[in-house]
Amino acid sequence: MTIYAKGVVFEGVDFDNPNHWRLEEYVKRGGYAALKKILNEKITQDEVIAEVKTSSLRGRGGAGFPTGLKWSFMPRNFPGQKYLVCNTDEGEPGTFKDLDIIVSNPHALIEGMIIGGYAMGITVGYNYIHGEVFEAYERFEEALEEARKAGFLGDNILGTDFCFQLHAHHGYGAYICGEETALLESLEGKKGQPRFKPPFPASFGLYGKPTTINNTETFASVPYIIREGGQKFLELGKPNNGGTKLFSVSGHVNRPGNYEIPLGTPFADLLEMCGGMRGGKKLKAVIPGGSSAPVLPAEIMMQCTMDYDSIAKAGSMLGSGAVIVMDETVCMVSALERLSYFYHEESCGQCTPCREGTGWLYRIVHRIAHGEGRPEDLELLASIGDNIAGRTICALGDAAVFPVRGMLKHFRSEFEYMIEHKKSQFAALS
Ligand code: SF4
């Protein structure tokens, strides 16, 4: 996928240079300077965590949890092994940014993880990479080898007594393995199914040991924060929404791709960067944060800025930053049918409300989309949603319900029309 605009993660990357991802090029653009700074200036673990807190870096995987706070949960004096895990199991429909990071700037992630290991006193890390990608996995393995050979990774890093081992792990291609506890189960060689929480991974994680899990983009943002300072990172964005963020824009725009822009950028500006609407059509709606985020109609979306707080206030989620743009020809019933099928298909089946409820949601939306809807179906969808959300082991149940609620809130009349007339007012989603 093409990367069009650059912020912290892709700063200085010359994509025209075929070696842009290699260690030599990364070092030329300031790479590993943050790690050197920490080790040479003997910056303490607390100081590193404080810098990350100052930056207001929030988890880029979807939840948006403050990274510095998460790092501070890791027990300091735990007597056994602790683990650091990177979640590169990117599988949310519409999201395609993390694989671009490990293909185009893998050392930013590696350096970020080494710094994370230092800050939390962790000596072993894993990067869990989505199972259906091969080039990205091999690229990351190669980058790891470069870092080891150069003394940035492994035993006695840069001649100090700090040691950090980092391994790549190829996942199994299941969407649910992106849920952090399912990922840990999978990493342990078991079936990738989410665990009951609590206990949380900070106390009972990989192999039952304290574990911190962050997203790829989150780790890749850390070197900049340490090198340039948390305050500078914060000021790139807006309060509580520090830095730049990658947005994977797909759908009916002229230039779909990854756009790394300051948090707080108006959505209208992002749309303009994407070359506007394809074919000069009118914007109808946007799913602003991956398929589980409730859809927002154009008139609301055009008032939003692209940051966690603005999108939440509008009634949706920034999530992973996957922006799915839909034009005026889109039939929302068909769009919801696709989304509902996805969650039904990807449910791990462990708990009844999700296993049965996602299938039920899908079958009802399917019959509406195929002209067989019943007058009571919309109430039934809402009621099933209420019996799934908040009643499952992991958030996939909620993720299946949010798109249904968003569609019924903003585009109910389309569903009603289709139930009554047995056909859509719009062309199918192209
Ligand atoms: Fe599995 Fe769904 Fe339950 Fe999550 S909510 S544990 S995906 S059945």
TrEMBL record:
Domain called NADH-ubiquinone oxidoreductase 51kDa subunit iron-sulphur binding: residue spans: 333-378
Record flagged with keyword Cytoplasm: no
Catalytic reaction equation(s): a quinone + NADH + 5 H(+)(in) = a quinol + NAD(+) + 4 H(+)(out)
GO molecular function, one term: metal ion binding
One Pfam family it belongs to: Complex1_51K
Matches recorded under Gene3D superfamilies: 3.10.20.600, 6.10.250.1450, NADH-ubiquinone oxidoreductase 51kDa subunit (3.40.50.11540), NADH-ubiquinone oxidoreductase 51kDa subunit, iron-sulphur binding domain (1.20.1440.230)
Coiled coil: none
Keyword Iron-sulfur: yes
InterPro entries: NADH-UbQ_OxRdtase_51kDa_CS, NADH-UbQ_OxRdtase_suF, Nuo51_FMN-bd, Nuo51_FMN-bd_sf, Nuop51_4Fe4S-bd, Nuop51_4Fe4S-bd_sf, Soluble_ligand-bd
Keywords: 4Fe-4S, Flavoprotein, FMN, Iron, Iron-sulfur, Metal-binding, NAD, Oxidoreductase, Quinone, Translocase
EC number: 7.1.1.-
Cofactor: [4Fe-4S] cluster; FMN
Top-level taxon in the UniProt lineage: Bacteria
NCBIfam families (UniProt xref): nuoF_fam, PRK13596.1
Similarity comment text for this entry: Belongs to the complex I 51 kDa subunit family.
Cited function: NDH-1 shuttles electrons from NADH, via FMN and iron-sulfur (Fe-S) centers, to quinones in the respiratory chain.
Name of this chain's protein: NADH-quinone oxidoreductase subunit F
Organism encoding this protein: Chitinilyticum piscinae
